Structures are given as structure tokens and as C-alpha cells.
């Protein structure tokens, strides 16, 4: 990142679910830090057309979204809910993906890779694409700015009631985002959200509402690096966790709280009650608190950076926590008194999330061994074993 510049983010979304999330970026009045650096990809022409239609309906300007911001890749008409097929499609068209990224983004400091983990296209392609951008591009394929890009994955867990295959995909997808097959780190940061956690326990399929919550959390995270009131930015988000070997996170958010009524510590508590996956906040090893307040409250000294840090320390002490992290105070437009808080929780025990899927994963694995499950073509027993060993090794390190 150039001295004095804001971090330039770019979004790569793959699969129908990832495209649905990315399409909502276009509907926002502005995307500070992202602007129009957005690419949606899919292996199925109808799905990519649906995404483009959603984007066209959300924007007012005349723009050729399909030829600029959308890409169909691979020679299959969809991945068939097989992450092997999604990865294979990305392998086939990696050159086209790279060239489109160069054309759409021009340059960027950080990529936000978006996928829902229950499917085949995004779940298959995104871990592969991250690995290739970090480790696989040859001279001529890459450009100098790509060498220092930070790769953040936004991964969404399927609803708990979805079929076994989707939970099998999710467990494998999480492992592949965290580690490449040889056991090395893949994404620099993996941010998790669970549909059922955000949608009233999964009682209805409200994708738009869930996705808006995800984007709000992303806005809070990105916004912290765009002002000067106690700045933390993506380099902090990945550098500090790297010391611990813990780079999975989930947002916990509380918004619209009246800063004239509520104390900051209360706001921290409210945010901690709303993590985006089932988890125990006390198991977190790292927390990045971001407080977003009206410019007028910051200018008048009603909320200050030292106060945010003091509250973070007091909040830890109250809950008997001893965790790493940096705090940030960032302004938002308008006067008012509504304050928003993001707690970016990292290195926590993954058991409460995985408990919703491990039985289904095991069932599909057994079916694959008998040749009785769809979506297993091309997946070797050795690869599946290594995927699980990688996940177990990561969990052992984080959960003691």
C-alpha cells in the first residue's frame, strides 16, 4: 500500500451464493475502499445471468456489468454441488480469471474472496484461486502489485437444515481455506458467518437480510482503515494473528446504539452477544474492536480513542479475558448519536460451529467410500483424509 493512501480492496465472488452477496455491494450508495473493483464468477451461465440481473436492478447508471464485472468459467454447466468440479473449472480457466482480475481491478492492496461453503462452485474455486494468487502464479501471469496483495476469505456456512452434501462441502471448504493440501497456510484471514446464526436460527431462508448483515460487518472492518482515529487496517488484522497461528475470525456486531444513553462497555457487551457463528467469546485469542461514531461526537470529544482502548481493557477484565488485539475509532457521516460496534473475534474454538456439520460430513464420507454419494467424482481417499488432517491440526493448535 502506498504511503498516505487508503487500502484499496477488491471483491472476487464465486458461485451463486457469493454472487448474491457481491451483488448487494453494487446496490449501496458508495463502497469506500472497494468502489467498483468487484468480480462475480460462476460455472453456470443461468446463475451468472441471475447475478447480473440482480446487479442491474440495483444500480441506476448504465453499465455493462456482464462483460466487465462477470465471468463464466470452466467447461461444465455448473459444478453439480461438487467442490472437485468447482476447483477443476477454476484450474481450466485460471488464465481467464487472472486476466479479468487485471482488467477489472487495475490494482489492489487486498482481495476479499466471497463464497458460500455449502455449494460446489465457490467452495471449490475460491480456495484454489487464493492458493494460486499467493503461490502459483508464474512470471508473466502476475503483475508487481499482485505480489503483496493480502487475501481475505469471507466464507458463509450453510443453514443447519440443508442436505448432508452441503455440510460435507462446508467442512472441506473451511479446511481448504485455512490450509493447502501440503499443510501450509492458505488464506491470510478467514472470516466466518453462519446462515442459521444470522437468520433467527435458520427458521427461514432470508438470504438478503443475512447478506446485508455480512456487508455491514465488512464495512465496519474496512472503514477502520480509512480514517485517523486509532487506525487498524488489514495489515494489522493479519500480522497480529500470524504470531499465534490463528487466522479464523467471525464478526460480532451491534449497531444503532445511542451514544448519549449507553456506555461503551455496554455496547461491547451487546456486540459480543451477536457473533456471526455459534461460539464462546471467552475462547477467543484475538479481538479487534471497531467503534464507529458520528463525526460530530468524535470532534466534540464525546467519544475518544483513549476511551475506546480503556473500554476494551475494562471489558476484558470484567469477563476475565486476556487476549491480543488493537482497537479503532472511526467516524461516520452525519451528526446524530448512533454508535456502531464491531468485535472481530479470532482464534476461537470452532467446535460449536463444526458440531452442526460433522455427522453429515462423516455420513457423506462413508457414502463416498461405498461409491454411493454424488459429488465425489475425482476426490481421492487420500485427499479427503489430508483435508481432515489439516483441519484437525489447525483446531488442535487453536483449541489446545
TrEMBL record:
Organism: Halorubellus litoreus
Domain of life, per lineage: Archaea
Name of the protein this chain belongs to: Tubulin/FtsZ GTPase domain-containing protein
Lineage: Archaea, Methanobacteriati, Methanobacteriota, Stenosarchaea group, Halobacteria
Gene3D superfamilies named in the record: Tubulin/FtsZ, GTPase domain
Pfam families: Tubulin
Tubulin/FtsZ GTPase domain mapped to chain residues: 11-198
